[in-house]
Amino acid sequence: MKRLKQLTLKELWQKVKRNWKVQYRFVVKNVDTHEEKLTFRLSLQRIFVVVTLSAIALIAITAMLIAFTPLRVYVPGYTTPDEYKKYKKLAREVENIDKQISVNQQYINNLYRILNDEIIVENEENIPTNKVEKKELTKPDARDWIETESEKILNRGKNSTPLPINQRASIETFNPCSPAHGIVTATLDIQKNHYGIDIKNTKDELVHAIDKGVVIFSGYEPEGGNTIIIQHPGNIISIYQRNSVLLKTAGTQVEVGEPVAKMGNSGTSEQGIHLHFELWYEGTPLNPSDFIFIEK
Known about the structure:
alpha+beta; 12 strands; 3 domains; two-stranded antiparallel sheet; 10-stranded antiparallel sheet; Glucose Permease (Domain IIA)
């Protein structure tokens, strides 16, 4: 049976091969009058070409209808225009949520460093993941804590005194860079509740982080205007006020000399465009002039 089948297929192929270009006449006649209405010359070759081209054209037309007309909504698996818009909107929202989760995770990691005096870590991977998760569970009010500490710094009282000489030895290794270029127009004067220095320059002059650390506050403060507060190693805090623009958000880790704001005249000051800069160590104001040389 198998041999017969193979033989039949072979004979069929030979027959097709012999008649591949043989011309046939296809006639359409009127049955009553025998008048020829249509006449076609056909061959297997022509039929194959016509069928193939027709199939290709049909596929192309179908693809164009699906791609460029509303008819695609009737094809199983395609969404309606409204559903597609909703999908794109949801995709953007998911992307924004992922970004926000990443920012919040960075904020929590940096806050963990502040609370454990480990803010300067060269590599993010140096912080054990299990410890960070434990801190998240045991300190759900971490953001409130950091805002409260920032408010304490901004609402400092009149009883602040200069750092005693016997405590200065613990920060002798502190070697900050200049926060901005300009002219110092006011120095530290605790009696007048002026806890830092004022550096005058032109509008939008870049303000730099004096040392690496973590931004623990970035926002508007009624008296100080646009304010940035950075936590540095060794319980040192730097404050940058009167800015026109803030370039960093709370929870961001910064490096020494990295731009954090632009100089301005926000807040209640009437002294023109300048940077009000303060240094604090364990709740005590330092004289920035003792540590920083301001270039004009």
